[in-house]
Structure formats: C-alpha cells, structure tokens
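<context>
A single protein, sequence plus fold
<entry> Chain with its tokenised backbone below
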Amino acid sequence: MDSQLSNWKDQVVDLLYWRDVKKTGVVFGVSLFLLLSLTVFSIVSVVAYIALALLSVTISFRIYKGVIQAIQKSDEGHPFRAYLDKDVAMSEELVQKYSHAVLGHFNNTVKELRRLFLVDDLVDSLKFAVLMWVFTYVGALFNGLTLLILALISLFSIPVIYEKHQAQIDHYVGLVNKNIKDAVAKIQAKIPGLKRKTE
C-alpha cells in the first residue's frame, strides 16, 4: 500500500514538473477548462454537459463497433469489456488509512484554531488577525472560483519556475525572511506583552 502511495506521489510530482508535457498539458487544460466553465455556467450545468459529452462518445463508439462487428461478422464482444470487468471498489483498508489521516489533520486544525481564537499566544493571534484582515481585501477583489483558477495556474507554473531559478529564489526568500524576523523582533522588544511565550 505504501508503494502505491509513493508511486502516486511520484506521478503527481512528474505532472507538476511537466516531465511528460503531453500528459501534463491534458490535465492542466482540462482542469482549467472545467474551472473556466464554472465561471459561466452553474456546477449542475457543467456536470450535465460533461456527462452528455461522455455519453455521446461512448454510445457512438459502442454503436460503431456493433455495426462493424455485424458487417464483418466477428464476435469481438463489448468494446468496453476490459473497463467493465475492472474492479473499481475501494478497499476498506485504504478508506480507513485516509480517514485516519483526514481525522488527524482535522483535529490538529481545530486545536490550532482554538489556540488562535482563545489567544493562547498573543503574537500568533495578532498574526492570524492580520492574515484575516488581508483576506477581507482578497475576498473583495476575487471570488473563490477566480482564486481556484489562479491556484491551478500557480500549481502548474511555480514548481517549474522554482526548479529553473532555485538559487536566486532561495537567496531572495532568505533576505525577506531575515528582514521580517528582524522587524518582528524590534516590534516585540518595543511593545510590552508582545514577547513570545517560551515553550
């Protein structure tokens, strides 16, 4: 099971780094087309149109193969038999493994939110408040679907850009992190009560 998960992770990395340009192009294009379709139509309409398009292709292919078999008097059988015989059921172990992982992430998120909202650490709660304030402006500028489209484009472009320019990016990110830490340290030193709790 772990080898399947490792194989799946390798496939995702290959997809995001454009190792197979044709495969990545199809996944990126279809995903982007789906999200752009959702900006114009409702999700119900998009799902219905996709289902109709898929059914049109499969029904047409099934009829075409049936006519060809009748003309050639061959008995090849159902054209989708290999897919119909394939087992698509999820194993109970796989469901339990992922449900435990999701439950762990959910519990950690709830604990962290409780810590932030009940001001266990004033500095962390203030950072969270600033982040939420920034999100109010982001929400006013973009809707959720636009953010998903931007996230998809970033997901397929940032890893490649980082791979090509890793040294320069790491250098500038390091400088920015150092400046932010220095500024936070100065602010914490000047304002009483903002010093971080010692763990």
About this structure: DSSP finds eight helices and no strands in the chain. The first helix runs from residue 2 to 16. The mean pLDDT is 88. The two ends are 37 Å apart (CA to CA).
